[in-house]
Amino acid sequence: MTNWQYDMNRLADWLQSLPVPTGIIAVTDSRARHLIQACEQNNILVPEQIAIVGIDNEEVVRFLTKIPLSSVEQGCLEMGYQAAKLMHESLLQPELLKKRTSLPRIVVPANKVHERQSSEYVSLNDPFVIQAMHFIKRNACKGIKVEQVLDHIGISRSNLDTRFREERGHSIHHEIHQEKLKYACELLCDINIPIQSVADRSGYPSLQYMYSVFKKDLGYTPKEFRVKESCC
């Protein structure tokens, strides 16, 4: 008889046997969350070494993982409609159902793949840049500065900045800036999140500061961006 820890140990053994980089599509968001937990416990970088995508796009699971989970949104409404249609036809014409040896197979395509950090793989060669990118993605919206990245990696700013420009084409500061801006844009696509909350959760010191960043980088205010985006 197995237990939870035994299963997680087996999962960890399997993950450590995989070549890197590797991408995994889990059967559900819950299983994807288990993969992320096993990676964290065994110092496997997500998505730099293992990229992970779940299925179902469950709202709760998104907030249970430290790394935002990419997920496939299934066509659940269409599935329900097609199932109800078959049931309705069977009730109207039960004699036809009796003559059928099998029900028709109906394939309902997924609605969308919601891309988040767990699958945001970027091909990099420099191990210091890989570590820095992982740290930035997990902490950019906590208000970190370049100094915190340098402390985490343990090399000089000039050294790491040079490596960043060679691998990414820009500075460490710009990488932090872009990560915060990208996350703010994602949050703005949810009209239920107040814009002040978007600024807070994205690590901006004030709403006014976020407005100036958006205007400078995108040419829109956050409110204009929200209205413009079709996802809203």
Automatic annotation (TrEMBL):
Keywords: DNA-binding, Transcription, Transcription regulation. One of its GO terms (molecular function) is sequence-specific DNA binding. SMART domains: HTH_ARAC (SM00342). It comes from Photobacterium angustum (strain S14 / CCUG 15956). Residues 130-228 form the HTH araC/xylS-type domain. It comes from the Bacteria. This is Xylose operon regulatory protein. Pfam families: HTH_18 (PF12833), Peripla_BP_3 (PF13377). InterPro entries: Homeodomain-like_sf (IPR009057), HTH_AraC (IPR018060), LacI/GalR-like_sensor (IPR046335), Peripla_BP_I (IPR028082).
